[in-house]
Amino acid sequence: xxxxxxxxxxxxxxxxxxxxxxxxxFPKIKQMGYDAVEIPVEDPALLDVKKVKEALFxxxxxxxxxxxxxxxxxLTHEDPAYHENSFRYIEACLDISQQLGASFxxxxxxxxxxxxxxxxxxxxxxxWDRAVSNLRKVCRMAEERGQKIALEPLNxxxxxxxxxxxxxxxxxxxxxxxxxxxxxxxxxxxxxxxDIEKAIRLAGDKLIHVQVSENYRGTxxxxxxxxxxxxxxxxxxxxxxxxxxxxxxxxxxxxxxxxCIWRPLASxxxxxxxxxxxxxxxxxxxxxx
Length: 289
Known about the structure:
With about 290 residues, the protein is an alpha/beta fold. The chain is built from 10 helices and 8 strands. It has a single domain, classed as TIM Barrel. The chain is globular and about 50 Å long. InterPro entries: IolE/XylAMocC-like, Xyl_isomerase-like_sf, Xyl_isomerase-like_TIM-brl.
């Protein structure tokens, strides 16, 4: 049976940061055949929400709001000032999501991306507890707006806190709030998960968004990803959300440096988007082969 999903793409594939002018990508994204667009909100002040909403409506694209968690946005930091900065930022993202008609904000919002160290069990417990306590506050902020959050495990080179579906499900259990949900990213899963199907099944009905690229962050269908396992896992949990391509352009040096992309991953970013979409359509309508 075909998967009952929608297909999306992140504007990070072409540019960074997302500004109001980035809506110029929407006609192309729609023309290619996408249903949804991921909007990475690096700086909420760069968006004219009314214009973005208008463009989404005009091009019949569903919005997915993703957060960007650099060093100044860290809910596990020992300095509470970092927590407050994170709260203000996440609150702004939740407001944007609500205003655009999206239903959640996704990302690794428990800690700063790149915070990957060998620390003691005591320090890990301390930071875990901070993440749980602060994310519970975030969940309340989301609930007040009729929103959810989707927490994303990252690979070991980008986080020492949450690396697997098992980790994120434990975090959600400890947060113990219905607004806490999961996003799984195939790039990170290819590094950390022994069994992609099992990881998806473990997330179950808490899985509200899926991101994909290849094991080398390239075009879906060109690498070593077990797409059959992805298909079986999503079928097993009756996933009906968006499966979205997330990768990055080497042309934006700051972003490329942050995600360690030192070379082009496709002949063109448009080609990446179109060929990736074509593959995902075939995959979703197959038996996962």
